[in-house]
Amino acid sequence: MFGLMQDHPLNISSLLIHVEKYHGDTEIVSKCLDSSIHRTNWKTIASRARQVANGLNRWDLASGTRIATLAWNSYRHLELFYGISCSGRVLHTINPRLHPDQISWMANHAEDVIFYFDITFYSTVQKMYDTTPHIRHYIALCTEEELMQLDDIANYPKLLAYETWINAQSSQLEWPVLDENSASSLCYTSGTTGNPKGVLYNHRSTILHAFTAALPDAIGLSATDTVLPVVPMFHVNAWGIPYAAAMVGAKLVFHGQFSDSQSLYHLLESEKVTVAGAVPTVWMSLLSYLQTQNLKFSTLNRTIIGGSACPPVMIQTFLEKFGVSVLHAWGMTEMSPIGTVAGLRNNHRNLSNDEIVKIRTKQGRVVFGVDIKIIDDDGNLLPSDGKSSGHVLVKGPWIIQNYFKSTENILDDGWFDTGDIACMDEEGYLIITDRSKDVIKSGGEWISSIDIENLALSHPEVAMAACIAYKDPKWDERPCLIVVPKPSTQPSSQSIKDHFVDKVAKWQIPDFIVFKDALPLGATGKILKTQLRKEVLTENGLIKPDLLEGQL
Ligand code: AMP
Residues with beta carbon inside 6 Å of ligand 1? Predict the structure, then answer.
């Protein structure tokens, strides 16, 4: 027997219809390329998203057609998010920090037909122009006058100015009712080996993920919130925040290309942001800026941190010095991305700050909708005892089934192997120890690079730290710690090693400390360990001798 409730497929357009009707006047604020502040609201975003859809309809693009964006976080990008997906096409967000050849490869693999870009990326468009024949139009996210100021436009006849194009379209449109399993957006994972792989989200997965993202123990979004997703819209749809914000009617603030600490702080304060989301490296710089300038947050009360492990010292500083709660989350592109968030439980209500920091340092409890299991190398289920580490497998309605255009079976009896190594404690908190490829295996025992990095970051003179394995004839692998000292400090390698004594087992203490001025960061702000290994290790996996002055 079927229930007798109405049958409404879960379509992303329902978010836009809702937010326009009930929160139309709620602001969307963007910092533009020229540093000026642009203000609009959900009603205008919805109206312009319909213009985007009408423009695409005029070109008669079939549903499922891939349409690319190469853009910073902004109101125009938000219009495209909705206009493209709600009209039945697939929004393909591309990471502009990739090499033009990689971008061109992705555009070709996805068979993008229209390509929207911020004019800061015009040189990329020029480089890829001749290698992407199926792109019919390159639309610069600017006015006609701004387009005219670009060099050499006569050589690129497929260029159009977004404002001219969108203004020629009607804002009248009934959103089509789509099968909720229709593809809505496409995001390629960086992939450390081989070519990038496309993760193809659908309307249903996006809406269900938005419900979960908004829940109190996840980001806990409400109509009273002002949200600044520092996480780029080209990285897993900005963690789903543009959808969850529409679901609850929150105000959105976009920082554009300005992710330096001073600009971010100014925007957080001037727009009265209550919640922000970013990878740890962004917060690391921002916190140090605040501390050196003796500044405080006046409205920010929580921040969602994920993408890589959040060090406890950051959680503690946020809590004790700034009164901001850190929501440490774990997930990945293949998971839309949210899998776990480190919210507290009922029995944690009277804990001290130190105990809270310990809990929030874990990657968190699994959110409803996702299921997790941890298995050993032979596929045996491991107990939730806080120490048995193994491979993390996940399943759920917003977890990948297969990569775009791939026929390879990537699931194991319905479970997706995340490639992460973790254990789960008795209360159901996931504790990630490593990416499987980053684990350091010394004498048959695992050393967690995350644990070593977190401890290093609690040294008063360490600004950034990354731990990698180098080859050792006796132990197979040993840990080497690469450290960026805080400004005006010169920590010695011995003082850093001493910092580990009595905190970890002796054999887990890194043998060598390599000092660097900066660490290579990937397009999403994560430390690029593959690049770092190239910088620090020889082809045989040994530490380059010149980096070890005085330590051999
Ligand atoms: P991406 O698909 O680029 O977002 O990368 C996903 C990967 O980032 C995960 O598989 C983890 O290895 C890592 N990651 C994400 N969040 C965390 C976290 N909170 N702690 C540790 N690693 C994380």
Answer: 189, 236, 306-309, 328-330, 332-333, 337, 363, 418-420, 432, 435, 524
